[in-house]
Prior knowledge:
CATH architecture of the largest domain: Orthogonal Bundle
CATH topology of the largest domain: Rna Polymerase Sigma Factor, Chain: A
CATH superfamily of the largest domain: RNA polymerase sigma factor, region 2, helix turn helix motif
Number of helices: 8
Radius of gyration: 22 Å
Helix content: over 70%
Shape: elongated
Distance between the termini: 86 Å
Low-confidence stretches: 109-116
Number of strands: 0
Structural class: mainly alpha
Order of helices and strands: HHHHHHHH
Largest sheet: none
Number of domains: 2
Mean pLDDT: 77
Amino acid sequence: MDEPDTTTGKRDELAELVHAARGGDRAAFDEIVRRTYVDTYTLAQRNTGDREDARDVVQEAYLRAWKGLRRFRGDAQFSTWLYRITQNVVMTQRRKTKLRNFFLSSLEDTSEPLVSSYPTPIEALEKRNAQATVYKALDTMSEKYRTVFILFELEGMSGQEVADLLGMRLGAVWVRLHRARAQFEARIQKDTNEGGAR
Protein backbone atom coordinates (compact mmCIF):
# COMPACT_ATOMS: atom_id res chain seq x y z
CA MET A 1 0.00 0.00 0.00
CA ASP A 2 1.35 3.43 -0.96
CA GLU A 3 2.18 5.87 1.81
CA PRO A 4 0.14 9.10 1.90
CA ASP A 5 1.65 12.15 0.17
CA THR A 6 2.39 14.36 3.18
CA THR A 7 3.83 17.12 0.98
CA THR A 8 0.51 17.59 -0.80
CA GLY A 9 -1.31 17.52 2.52
CA LYS A 10 0.92 20.22 3.97
CA ARG A 11 0.50 22.33 0.85
CA ASP A 12 -3.28 22.05 1.12
CA GLU A 13 -3.16 23.01 4.79
CA LEU A 14 -1.03 26.03 3.98
CA ALA A 15 -3.45 27.05 1.23
CA GLU A 16 -6.31 26.94 3.74
CA LEU A 17 -4.33 29.09 6.17
CA VAL A 18 -3.56 31.59 3.40
CA HIS A 19 -7.26 31.76 2.51
CA ALA A 20 -8.14 32.46 6.15
CA ALA A 21 -5.35 35.03 6.51
CA ARG A 22 -6.53 36.85 3.40
CA GLY A 23 -9.82 37.30 5.20
CA GLY A 24 -8.03 39.03 8.07
CA ASP A 25 -7.41 36.05 10.35
CA ARG A 26 -4.20 37.07 12.17
CA ALA A 27 -3.90 33.72 13.97
CA ALA A 28 -3.86 31.98 10.60
CA PHE A 29 -1.08 34.26 9.42
CA ASP A 30 0.90 33.61 12.60
CA GLU A 31 0.65 29.90 11.81
CA ILE A 32 1.87 30.59 8.27
CA VAL A 33 4.88 32.38 9.73
CA ARG A 34 5.58 29.45 12.05
CA ARG A 35 5.46 26.96 9.18
CA THR A 36 7.53 28.96 6.70
CA TYR A 37 9.98 30.75 9.00
CA VAL A 38 12.89 28.30 8.71
CA ASP A 39 12.88 28.33 4.91
CA THR A 40 12.48 32.11 4.78
CA TYR A 41 15.26 32.71 7.30
CA THR A 42 17.57 30.28 5.49
CA LEU A 43 17.01 32.13 2.23
CA ALA A 44 17.65 35.50 3.89
CA GLN A 45 20.83 34.34 5.62
CA ARG A 46 22.15 32.77 2.43
CA ASN A 47 21.69 36.10 0.65
CA THR A 48 22.95 38.41 3.40
CA GLY A 49 25.60 36.24 5.06
CA ASP A 50 24.72 37.79 8.41
CA ARG A 51 22.31 36.55 11.08
CA GLU A 52 21.20 39.99 12.25
CA ASP A 53 20.64 41.20 8.70
CA ALA A 54 18.77 37.98 7.92
CA ARG A 55 16.42 38.52 10.87
CA ASP A 56 15.75 42.08 9.71
CA VAL A 57 15.01 40.82 6.20
CA VAL A 58 12.63 38.14 7.48
CA GLN A 59 10.76 40.59 9.68
CA GLU A 60 10.32 43.03 6.81
CA ALA A 61 9.35 40.23 4.40
CA TYR A 62 6.54 38.98 6.63
CA LEU A 63 5.35 42.53 7.22
CA ARG A 64 5.14 43.07 3.46
CA ALA A 65 3.45 39.70 3.01
CA TRP A 66 0.77 40.54 5.60
CA LYS A 67 0.11 43.95 4.07
CA GLY A 68 -0.02 42.56 0.54
CA LEU A 69 -1.82 39.30 1.23
CA ARG A 70 -5.09 40.48 -0.29
CA ARG A 71 -3.26 40.93 -3.60
CA PHE A 72 -2.06 37.31 -3.59
CA ARG A 73 -4.18 35.69 -6.28
CA GLY A 74 -2.92 32.14 -5.91
CA ASP A 75 -1.51 31.96 -9.44
CA ALA A 76 1.68 30.56 -7.89
CA GLN A 77 2.29 28.73 -4.64
CA PHE A 78 2.40 30.93 -1.55
CA SER A 79 5.98 29.80 -0.87
CA THR A 80 7.02 31.11 -4.30
CA TRP A 81 5.29 34.43 -3.65
CA LEU A 82 6.96 34.74 -0.24
CA TYR A 83 10.31 33.82 -1.80
CA ARG A 84 10.03 36.74 -4.23
CA ILE A 85 9.08 39.16 -1.45
CA THR A 86 12.09 38.04 0.59
CA GLN A 87 14.40 38.49 -2.40
CA ASN A 88 13.01 41.99 -2.95
CA VAL A 89 13.68 42.90 0.69
CA VAL A 90 17.25 41.63 0.32
CA MET A 91 17.68 43.80 -2.78
CA THR A 92 16.36 46.84 -0.91
CA GLN A 93 18.75 46.21 1.97
CA ARG A 94 21.69 45.85 -0.40
CA ARG A 95 20.69 49.05 -2.16
CA LYS A 96 20.68 51.00 1.09
CA THR A 97 24.08 49.60 2.05
CA LYS A 98 25.55 50.38 -1.36
CA LEU A 99 24.15 53.89 -1.31
CA ARG A 100 25.81 54.52 2.06
CA ASN A 101 29.18 53.37 0.78
CA PHE A 102 28.92 54.20 -2.91
CA PHE A 103 30.65 57.53 -3.12
CA LEU A 104 33.11 57.08 -0.28
CA SER A 105 34.46 53.90 -1.86
CA SER A 106 34.41 55.26 -5.41
CA LEU A 107 36.43 58.31 -4.39
CA GLU A 108 39.20 56.28 -2.78
CA ASP A 109 42.50 56.39 -4.66
CA THR A 110 44.49 53.26 -3.83
CA SER A 111 47.49 54.49 -5.84
CA GLU A 112 48.41 57.01 -3.15
CA PRO A 113 50.59 56.04 -0.18
CA LEU A 114 48.94 55.03 3.09
CA VAL A 115 49.91 58.25 4.85
CA SER A 116 47.75 60.15 2.36
CA SER A 117 44.63 58.04 3.04
CA TYR A 118 43.42 60.38 5.77
CA PRO A 119 41.55 63.25 4.10
CA THR A 120 42.12 66.85 5.03
CA PRO A 121 39.07 68.74 6.35
CA ILE A 122 38.52 70.24 2.89
CA GLU A 123 38.78 66.82 1.21
CA ALA A 124 36.35 65.32 3.74
CA LEU A 125 33.91 68.14 3.07
CA GLU A 126 34.21 67.60 -0.68
CA LYS A 127 33.43 63.90 -0.26
CA ARG A 128 30.37 64.64 1.89
CA ASN A 129 29.15 67.18 -0.64
CA ALA A 130 29.67 64.70 -3.50
CA GLN A 131 27.75 62.03 -1.62
CA ALA A 132 24.91 64.44 -0.87
CA THR A 133 24.79 65.35 -4.57
CA VAL A 134 24.38 61.69 -5.53
CA TYR A 135 21.58 61.18 -2.99
CA LYS A 136 19.84 64.30 -4.25
CA ALA A 137 20.14 63.14 -7.86
CA LEU A 138 18.65 59.75 -7.01
CA ASP A 139 15.84 61.31 -5.00
CA THR A 140 14.79 63.49 -7.93
CA MET A 141 14.43 60.50 -10.28
CA SER A 142 11.04 58.94 -10.79
CA GLU A 143 10.76 55.60 -9.00
CA LYS A 144 10.69 53.48 -12.18
CA TYR A 145 13.94 55.00 -13.44
CA ARG A 146 15.66 55.04 -10.05
CA THR A 147 14.97 51.34 -9.47
CA VAL A 148 16.49 50.28 -12.78
CA PHE A 149 19.46 52.63 -12.28
CA ILE A 150 20.25 51.27 -8.82
CA LEU A 151 19.88 47.62 -9.79
CA PHE A 152 22.10 48.00 -12.85
CA GLU A 153 24.66 50.61 -11.75
CA LEU A 154 24.95 49.92 -8.02
CA GLU A 155 23.90 46.29 -7.68
CA GLY A 156 25.85 45.25 -10.76
CA MET A 157 22.97 43.23 -12.17
CA SER A 158 22.80 42.47 -15.89
CA GLY A 159 20.05 43.91 -18.03
CA GLN A 160 18.39 40.51 -18.25
CA GLU A 161 18.53 40.03 -14.47
CA VAL A 162 16.86 43.41 -13.98
CA ALA A 163 14.22 42.50 -16.55
CA ASP A 164 13.50 39.17 -14.85
CA LEU A 165 13.31 40.71 -11.37
CA LEU A 166 10.98 43.52 -12.42
CA GLY A 167 8.95 41.44 -14.87
CA MET A 168 9.85 43.69 -17.81
CA ARG A 169 11.04 43.22 -21.38
CA LEU A 170 14.78 43.66 -21.82
CA GLY A 171 14.25 46.46 -24.33
CA ALA A 172 12.17 48.38 -21.80
CA VAL A 173 14.96 48.03 -19.24
CA TRP A 174 17.48 49.60 -21.63
CA VAL A 175 15.11 52.48 -22.36
CA ARG A 176 14.58 53.19 -18.65
CA LEU A 177 18.30 52.88 -17.92
CA HIS A 178 19.13 55.34 -20.71
CA ARG A 179 16.61 57.86 -19.36
CA ALA A 180 17.74 57.28 -15.77
CA ARG A 181 21.36 57.99 -16.70
CA ALA A 182 20.29 61.15 -18.51
CA GLN A 183 18.32 62.33 -15.46
CA PHE A 184 21.19 61.48 -13.12
CA GLU A 185 23.83 63.24 -15.22
CA ALA A 186 21.63 66.29 -15.74
CA ARG A 187 21.07 66.64 -12.00
CA ILE A 188 24.76 66.18 -11.20
CA GLN A 189 25.68 68.78 -13.83
CA LYS A 190 23.06 71.20 -12.50
CA ASP A 191 24.33 70.91 -8.92
CA THR A 192 27.92 71.23 -10.10
CA ASN A 193 27.15 74.41 -12.04
CA GLU A 194 25.19 75.90 -9.14
CA GLY A 195 28.02 75.07 -6.75
CA GLY A 196 30.57 76.73 -9.00
CA ALA A 197 28.44 79.85 -9.37
CA ARG A 198 28.38 80.51 -5.64
